Automatic annotation (TrEMBL):
Protein name: Succinate-semialdehyde dehydrogenase
Keyword DNA-binding assigned: no
Family label: Belongs to the aldehyde dehydrogenase family.
Domain Aldehyde dehydrogenase: 59-521
Record-linked PROSITE patterns: ALDEHYDE_DEHYDR_CYS (PS00070), ALDEHYDE_DEHYDR_GLU (PS00687)
EC number: 1.2.1.16
Enzyme class of the recorded protein, top EC level: oxidoreductase
GO biological processes: gamma-aminobutyric acid catabolic process
Organism phylogeny: Eukaryota, Fungi, Dikarya, Ascomycota, Pezizomycotina
Catalytic-site annotation from UniProt: 297
């Protein structure tokens, strides 16, 4: 296999690589690999930065005393440590959640609503600090991190409004004299496992509905980005959320052990996971031992289709938003861009022009629009996807190489044209800043291409033909469709996939259903005294 460097050099030599986008000029860039160290972010409230985790209302370390290192993805530097939990630590967190359940499940929806509302407000009051933490550990630019804080807090606001409306139903019975009604009850202790790409929003999208329903929580924060979740736990404490209701477990190397502990524990009644399809399958297998309720938000491979009748500028803006958000590291990022022949050349040109204006660099630096990728493994995958496409005849229009002078985890935002179905990008999620553009001629052809994948999370298309809008929205085998927009994320919208992108819906009025069980009560004898009773 070719090394990353040789592959990237080969790509950089492509004659079609016509120009480079603006680079951010970092005065402190090291020449070999990593950029030089950056100071820790100056928080308005330094007590939000933790090196312990929150279990049973207390800040604790692992019983073994072990910790793991957290790195700034932009510099590769160690920026702190967190407790390396093991099975026993995790079991203790589950026990705390179990002990807190009987009283928390009895609270009224209105009480839980007030707690969530307070937590929401504390997030908004501390938004600047939370955003700095997100940028520091995830790398995304500060403006994006600020956007994420609002997005994340909005899940608490949303579910604060849902908590008091956990209505059951009355149902006419088929048996004369009987009456039927239903009650929605919290499922119990829930295990939540979230990824690094949204260190705040993926956590709140799960904890919000869990608390609204009256569940208690054991949440495994991502090893790459544990600080934001810890800061959220500090704010939960300040909001008055009772001890044991929220427990955060942290790990890096021991993550599979923690996953196994959560998924096989008889005390945990539900697991909600956001992450890759491969890990999802493993967790599903393990969860079968105790037949848990599950919600899985897994990987995607979103088609992004531009028909000849589209508004070209809107389609380009949509592609920028969908493809390059978080440097391509969201599960709903466009992965395969299909453009109809009539607009193909102009779309490629206009998209490349937009990308040329990007500024890649350290997330807190002025004007930076795109940060690093999360790991060197991610750089390797992106590089492989580009070199695979180039080796099979695609042409790099802009970008195409790692940005070694910025650090080991930066990659040029890239536009590639003349993509073909046999290339890796056609079938694998790139999870990086590479826009591969395929040409198509007919509607039937593009629908077949778009659906030719095992996963089905998001899909996008641009068209001004209202009949086509209905036709394509219905034809795409995905859980979410963006029509004439590249941004679909909204706490009010049901978020989730089909096929191997998982099941369950987060956010929206449906989100809380993932955390309740419906109990049916049949009242016999029309409510009359039973025979034999006085
Ligand atoms: N559908 C969605 O809403 C959504 C959102 C974000 C990311 N994703 C997907 O996640 C993937 C990228 O994230 P990733 O590489 O971090 O995914 P990943 O599956 O490797 O990790 C996700 C989370 O699971 C944990 N994890 C990993 N192995 C585990 C195990 N054996 N037991 C328990 N926990 C385990 C990780 O620590 C992390 O917290 C992409 O495929 C992306 O599409 C999906
Ligand atoms: O990466 C997955 C989540 C993205 C989102 O909620 O917009």
């Amino acid at each position: 296999m070719r090394s990353i460097l040789s592959a990237s050099r080969a790509i950089a030599r492509q004659p079609t690589c016509t120009s480079r986008f603006q680079r951010n000029t970092l005065p402190t860039i090291a020449t070999r690999g990593y950029a030089m160290s950056r100071p820790a972010p100056k928080l308005n409230d330094p007590s939000l930065l933790k090196d312990k985790t929150y279990v049973n209302g207390e800040w604790i370390g692992a019983k073994s005393g072990k910790t793991f290192e957290v790195h700034d993805p932009a510099t590769g530097e160690v920026i702190g440590t967190m407790p390396e939990f093991d099975r026993a630590d995790t079991e203790a967190a589950i026990a705390a959640a179990q002990a807190a359940l009987p009283s928390f499940r009895k609270t009224t929806g209105r009480e839980r609503s007030r707690l969530l509302r307070k937590w929401y407000q504390l997030m908004m009051d501390n938004a600047d600090d939370l955003a700095k933490l997100i940028t520091w550990e995830n790398g995304k630019p500060l403006a994006d991190a600020n956007g994420e804080v609002t997005y994340a807090a909005n899940f608490f606001e949303w579910f604060a409004e849902e908590a008091p409306r956990l209505n059951g139903a009355t149902i006419p019975s088929s048996v004369p004299g009987n009456r039927i009604f239903t009650i929605k009850e919290p499922v119990g202790v829930v295990g939540l496992i979230t990824p690094w790409n949204f260190p705040a929003a993926m956590v709140t999208r799960k904890i919000g509905p869990a608390l609204a329903a009256g569940c208690t929580v054991v949440a495994k924060s991502p090893g790459e980005t544990p600080f934001t979740a810890a800061a959220l736990a500090e704010l939960a404490h300040r909001a008055g959320i009772p001890k044991g209701v929220i427990n955060i477990v942290t790990s890096d190397k021991n993550t599979p052990e923690l996953g196994k502990t959560i998924t096989t524990s008889p005390a945990v009644k539900k697991v909600s996971f956001t992450g890759s399809t491969g890990v999802g399958k493993l967790l599903m297998t393990d969860s079968s031992s105790t037949l848990k309720k599950l919600s899985f938000e897994l990987g995607g491979n979103a088609p992004f289709i531009v028909f000849d009748d589209a508004d070209l500028d809107a389609a380009v803006a949509g592609a920028v938003a969908s493809k390059f958000r978080s440097s391509g590291q969201t599960c709903v990022c466009a992965n395969r861009i299909y453009v109809q022949s009539g607009l193909y050349d102009r779309f490629v040109e206009k998209l490349a022009e937009k990308v040329r204006g990007f500024k890649v660099g350290y997330g807190t630096d002025e004007g930076v629009t795109h940060g690093p990728l999360i790991s060197e493994k991610a750089i390797k995958k992106v590089t492989e996807h580009v070199s695979d496409a180039v080796s099979k005849g695609a042409q790099v229009v802009i970008g195409g190489s790692p940005l070694r002078d910025l650090g080991a985890r930066f990659f040029e935002p890239t536009v590639i044209r003349d993509m073909k179905p046999g290339m890796k990008i056609a079938s694998e999620e790139t999870f990086g800043p590479v826009a591969g553009i395929f040409r198509f001629d007919t509607e039937a052809e593009v629908v077949a291409l778009a659906n030719d994948t095992d996963v089905g999370l998001a899909g996008y298309f641009f068209s001004r033909d209202v009949e086509r809008v209905y036709r394509i929205a219905e034809a795409l085998e995905v859980g979410m469709v963006g029509v004439n927009t590249g941004l679909i994320s909204d706490p009010a919208a049901p978020f989730g996939g089909v096929k191997e992108s998982g099941f369950g819906r987060e956010g929206s009025v449906m989100g809380i259903d993932e955390y309740v069980v419906t109990k049916m009560v049949t009242l016999g004898n029309n409510g009359q005294p039973l025979q034999g009773s006085s």
